Amino acid sequence: MANQQKKRINSKAAQTALAFSSLILLIIIFTIASSSFLTAGNIVTILLMTAVNGILAVGITFIIITGGIDLSVGTVMTFGSVITAFVISNLSMPIAIGILAGILAGVLCGFVNGISVTKLHLPPFIATLGMMNVTKGLNLIVSGARPIYFAEKPEFTRIATTMVFGIPVGVLIFFVSALVAVFILSKTVIGRYAFAIGSNEEATRLSGINTDGWKIAIYSMSGAFFGLGGVVMASRVASAQPSLGVGYEMDAIAAAVIGGASLSGGEGSILGTIIGAFIITVLTNGLRILSVPQEWQMVVTGLIVIGAVYLDIVRRRVK
Questions:
Q1: Predicted TM-score of the model (pTM)
Q2: How far apart are the first and last CA of the chain?
Q3: Residues 6+ apart with CB under 8 A from 297
Q4: Per-residue pLDDT of the chain (319 residues; tens, 9 = 90+)
Q5: Best CA proximity match to 234, nearest among 67, 54, 129, 95
Q6: What whole-number distance in Å separates Cα of residue 7 and Cα of residue 319?
Q7: How far apart, in whole angstroms, are the C-alpha atoms of residue 150 and residue 239?
């Protein structure tokens, strides 16, 4: 048992080192290719771009470790931003209440996903695909199919972009969220059970652990990260855009997989996911600076995801 744990730690360290090396290589390539890449302004842009996707990726890492998947990440994030904006602007409630409402909206969606997977026995792919469409519709209903602006509370729009020690607050929120996630995954029962469920759910259940209850808790907790991502997004773009969010799930999943999380479950780390999120952002930003058309940016990102998943399959076969 100790040898297996040691092998898992060594494998995780090797995967993280590989991802970090890839990130450094990308930075070097784009720095050489364009003098506009490694500038103070562009670094801040990269950090802000990574903040939202990073929070989403951290949240979905827990789900992937259990062997699940969540395709509703992007629309749940948007739901969080729409609820936040509706509470603050339409109901004229305090900003803190709006932020809490946005996070709780994500928790509710995660809870429903967890119930669908555990009690209705729906495959995670189908359950979260359904939630993606539900929240897509709710976003339009709550917002009236129009963007909601923070005209009466402009201070909310400055939360994500206000600079503290040269770093936007939205980025600091991302870093704090990541630290909390590291603690949860490595030091708490929910983290240990996430790995146990992903490694062998049946054995975990037979050992007396309520796997259904813990999976519901994990999906709900991940929903909190998605809702928080929606709050940061709403502040960053100074509005809640009901049609925003589609496609964010792929970037979040890609970040987790590139960082070493296995779609088969049982493996993953928050540090690796953060590095993966930066790889996605640096790649997108660098290609944009080089004036590569957006459609080709999507092709490159897709190929990277396929490559990361294939490497994970090869790695598991070797084990």
A1: 0.92
A2: 15
A3: 283, 284, 287, 288
A4: 445 555 555 566 777 888 899 899 999 999 999 989 989 899 999 999 999 999 999 999 999 999 999 999 999 999 999 999 999 999 999 999 999 999 999 999 999 999 999 999 999 999 999 999 999 999 999 999 999 999 888 899 888 888 888 889 999 999 999 999 999 999 999 999 999 999 999 999 999 999 999 999 999 999 999 999 999 999 999 999 998 888 899 889 989 998 888 888 888 999 999 999 999 999 999 999 998 888 888 888 788 878 877 877 777 776 6
A5: 95
A6: 10
A7: 6
Report the CATH fold assignment for 16-318: ABC transporter involved in vitamin B12 uptake, BtuC (1.10.3470)
Rounded distance between C-alpha atoms, residue 254 and residue 252, angstroms: 5
Q: Which two tokens stand for residue 269?
A: 């780390």
Handedness of CA 63, 68, 71, 72 (dihedral sign): negative
Classify the C-alpha dihedral 157-163-168-170 as positive or negative.
negative
Q: How many CB atoms lie within 10 A of CB 193?
A: 20
